[in-house]
């Protein structure tokens, strides 16, 4: 199922270099606004243990909301199914940072991938500890997943988001007003901003996603029944209000971030990381989505 993969990746990287409309780099986090929109990288870690890549595959980028996939896995490991009393499992049909639904639904976020839901997940992991201890656990999990110690938090990206994080502060305080925040909002958000500022390159991210392939490739971090559920949530909620269109075009469970990265899983076959900093109107990587659409078609990969 992976023959022709390297050629397909080279072809896609060449096609993406020729694309004129590359989307808009996120500028609400000032530190991200200066990133060159011409960068592009893709990597695939296969179930049989190989790693293929093309483009700027050594360049680090900000994982942002892709980290929500890893924190969800950690929080479920710590708290089990009782986590679902605090957060739902339905697509939101709203922007990732929307607050309107949170009031209508009494402070229980729709899913763990919209910002409000991810803040609750980070709050669950924090659990009364110092933020540095929770962040150490998150980094430990991600380093174990990627089998690389060379994964770090970009402190200036975290500080930049913190300084401009009024929307996330409002979400966290609203959660607190509904009794759905266990730690002081400043501590939970400090942890959340630093978690979002973790950086990887696509090779590291593709390797870090192997535990979601479901074949026992790479380190065994999560049992298969939970892997299936994580993939279900990525398929239905991983691209916010663009999740339906992403499923239609690409047909794979995936999680995006406003740094322009996407982690996509071909269950039983491969983990794919793609990065192009320009975003579409939903805050998902424009060329990253196009590249995944092309790769899925070239390799005949789909969950449907
Ligand atoms: N979609 C994203 O990647 C959003 C993550 C970003 N840190 C935020 O909270 O706004």
Automatic annotation (TrEMBL):
Substrate binds at residues 65, 115, 161, 168, 192, 240, 258. It comes from the Bacteria. GO terms for biological process: glutamate biosynthetic process; L-glutamine catabolic process. InterPro entries: Beta-lactam/transpept-like, Glutaminase. Pfam families: Glutaminase. Its EC number is 3.5.1.2. Keywords: Acetylation, Hydrolase. It is an enzyme of class 3 (hydrolase). It catalyses: L-glutamine + H2O = L-glutamate + NH4(+). GO terms for molecular function: glutaminase activity. The keyword Acetylation applies. PANTHER family: GLUTAMINASE. Belongs to the glutaminase family. NCBIfam families: Gln_ase, PRK00971.1-2. Homotetramer. This is Glutaminase. It comes from Parasedimentitalea huanghaiensis. The gene is glsA.
């Amino acid at each position: 199922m992976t023959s022709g993969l390297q050629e397909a990746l080279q072809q896609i990287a060449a096609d993406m270099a020729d694309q004129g409309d590359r989307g808009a780099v996120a500028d609400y986090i000032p530190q991200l606004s200066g990133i060159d929109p011409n960068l592009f990288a893709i990597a695939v870690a296969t179930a049989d243990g190989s790693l293929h890549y093309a483009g700027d595959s050594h360049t680090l980028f900000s994982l942002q909301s892709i980290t929500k996939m890893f924190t969800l896995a950690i929080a479920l490991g710590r708290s089990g199914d009782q986590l679902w009393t605090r957060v739902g499992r339905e697509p939101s049909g709203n922007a990732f940072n929307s607050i309107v639904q949170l009031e209508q639904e009494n402070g229980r976020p729709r899913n763990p991938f919209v910002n409000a839901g991810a803040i609750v997940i980070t709050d669950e992991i924090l659990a009364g500890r110092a933020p540095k201890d929770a962040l150490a656990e998150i980094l430990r999990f991600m380093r174990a997943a990627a089998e690389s110690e060379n994964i770090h938090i970009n402190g200036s990206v975290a500080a930049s988001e913190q300084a401009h994080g009024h929307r996330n502060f409002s979400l966290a305080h609203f959660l607190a007003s509904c009794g759905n925040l266990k730690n002081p909002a400043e501590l939970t958000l400090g942890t959340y901003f630093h978690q979002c500022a973790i950086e990887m390159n696509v090779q590291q991210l593709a390797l870090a996603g192997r535990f979601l392939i479901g074949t026992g490739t790479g380190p065994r971090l999560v049992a298969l029944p939970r892997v299936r559920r994580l993939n279900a949530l990525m398929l239905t909620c991983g691209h916010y209000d663009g999740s339906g269109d992403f499923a239609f075009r690409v047909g794979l469970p995936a999680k995006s971030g406003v740094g322009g990265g996407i982690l996509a899983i071909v269950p039983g076959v491969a983990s794919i990381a793609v990065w192009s900093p320009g975003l579409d109107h939903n805050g998902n990587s424009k060329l990253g989505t196009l590249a995944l659409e092309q790769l899925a078609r070239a390799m005949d990969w789909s969950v449907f």
